Amino acid sequence: GPIILDTYRVIADFEKTSKHEINLHTGDFVEIVEKNENGWWFCQCESKRGWVPASYLEPLDGPEEAEEPEPDYEGEMHVTTQAYEAEQEDEISLEVGQTVEVIHKLLDGWWVVRKGEQTGHYPSMFLQKSDKKN
Amino acid sequence: SIKNPPQNPPPRPPPEMRRKPA
């Protein structure tokens, strides 16, 4: 049968920063072709196709709780593969090679991690699962 | 065809523009 793609609504303007991305305008509708765990989704909007940040989209048919995993408060050990400096209040700054606990794998690619008593969002593409036990 | 996704973290909208938690 035909492939039915999920439709999402754009919630904020997005300006592309590389050639495989597309611009988004608030209120546009896009169809999602692929959802990458790192938070970049491949979508089509009219005749354009390209990657866009998932956090700029909301599902057309109600909340997407079903596809978003529940938080895991015990945490899953990961190691940072790249440093990142927080740019927004709810983010966490970490150096490369630090061990953290991932407590919520959000679909937008900004996972909630815990490091000691600090908690904040961190780019999932800078995290690698670790074999170390808690 | 689908190219590889960008290698930089996806940007986030400013807090006031974000989706409300479900």
Describe the overall structure.
- The complex is a heterodimer of chains A (134) and B (22).
- Chain A has 134 residues and is mainly beta.
- The mean pLDDT of chain A is 91.
- In chain A, strand 3 and strand 4 (48-53) form a beta hairpin.
- Chain A has strands at 6-10, 29-35, 40-45, 48-53, 57-59, 76-80, 99-104, 110-115, 118-123, 127-129.
- Chain A contains no helices and 10 strands.
- In chain A, strands 4-3-2-1-5 form a 5-stranded antiparallel sheet, with no helix packed on it.
- Chain A starts with 5 loop residues before the first strand and ends in a 5-residue tail after the last strand.
- Chain B is low in regular secondary structure.
- Chains A and B meet through loops of A and loops of B.
Question: TL;DR?
Answer:
Chain A is mostly beta strands.
Attribute tags:
heterodimer, A: five-stranded antiparallel β-sheet, five-stranded antiparallel β-sheet, B: 22 residues
Spatial extent as radius of gyration of chain B? 13 Å
How far is the first residue's CA from the last residue's CA of chain B? 34 Å
Average pLDDT for all residues of chain A = 91
Helix content of chain A: under 10%
Q: Element order, helices and strands of chain A? A: EEEEEEEEEE
Write the layout of secondary structure elements.
The complex is a heterodimer of chains A (134) and B (22).
Chain A: E1 6-10, E2 29-35, E3 40-45, E4 48-53, E5 57-59, E6 76-80, E7 99-104, E8 110-115, E9 118-123, E10 127-129
Antiparallel strand pairs in A: 1-2, 1-5, 2-3, 3-4, 6-7, 6-10, 7-8, 8-9
Chain B: no helix or strand
